[in-house]
Amino acid sequence: MSHSLNEIEAMSKRAARGAGLSWGLAEEAAKGTRWLSSFGFPGTELLAELLNLNDRIPAIDVSPVSLRAEVWHAPARRMSPLIAGASLSDCAARLLERGKITMENVSLPLLAVPFMGGAALRLGLPVAAEWEGARLATDGKRLCVQASPEALRLRQASTLVFSAPAEMTGQQEPLLRAEVCEDSWSQLEKFAHRTFAPATEESRLKGAGAGVSDND
């Protein structure tokens, strides 16, 4: 089924929040899912898979132990691409200074790629990401892809390397709508439902949804 990018972003944000991500990271996850979907990638499928994988797991367990380390790694021996990507964007200046940032055991590495777009815009230079069988580069607006379908859907990259500046070849332009897998959309809806305020006896008496506050 087809959805607008605005619909994809809104659903992804609510689902990410329902899965326990902070509102800030949920917003970043939503923007990243939208960005991937705009280039024809299965953004909602990847996000749904990640939310199921990390459901109920403390964020600190799948976060980089140290951003100053030579190689980033997480306590759980698998790193969230959302947290890793957001950290990369914050460390854009360090990326340019070092030339590259290496991460180990990153789940669904394609989900980290949109964040390098933010880093590229901050630096004013293209940034590249490489893992087994895949190389992608972006200037924040356009995307270059050299990868097999299997590499793009890799469940966990043993090594993920970001580098800058990068060469842009074979550019792709974003679209305005995206095809979405119905199953992934249903999974996101389930996570999104967790953000809804539970019905109380008072709210039931007033009518469905009437008088419900979002402040809890």
What descriptors fit this protein?
about 220 residues; alpha+beta; DUF3726 domain-containing protein; DUF3726
Structure description:
The chain is α+β, with helices and mostly antiparallel strands and 216 residues long. It has one domain (2-195). It has helices at residues 5-18, 23-38, 43-53, 81-90, 92-98, 113-123, 149-152, 182-193, 201-206, and strands spanning 2-4, 71-72, 100-107, 127-131, 134-138, 143-147, 156-163, 171-172, 177-179. The chain has a seven-stranded mixed β-sheet. A two-stranded antiparallel ribbon has the order 1-9. Helix 2 (23-38) packs antiparallel against helix 3 and helix 4 (81-90) packs parallel to helix 6 (113-123). The protein is globular and about 50 Å long. Mean pLDDT is 88; it is low at 199-216.
List the helices and strands and how they pair.
Blueprint lengths: L1 E3 H14 L4 H16 L4 H11 L17 E2 L8 H10 L1 H7 L1 E8 L5 H11 L3 E5 L2 E5 L4 E5 L1 H4 L3 E8 L7 E2 L4 E3 L2 H12 L7 H6 L10
Parallel strand pairs: 2-3
Antiparallel strand pairs: 1-9, 3-7, 4-5, 4-7, 5-6, 6-8
Average pLDDT number: 88
Give the strand content. 15-25%
Q: What's the domain count?
A: 1
Order of helices and strands: EHHHEHHEHEEEHEEEHH
Largest sheet: 7 strands, mixed
Count of DSSP-assigned helices? 9
Compute the number of strand runs. 9
Shape: globular
**Helicity, in percent?**
40-55%
- N-to-C terminal Cα separation, in Å? 34 Å
Report Rg. 18 Å
**Strand order, largest beta sheet:** 2-3-7-4-5-6-8
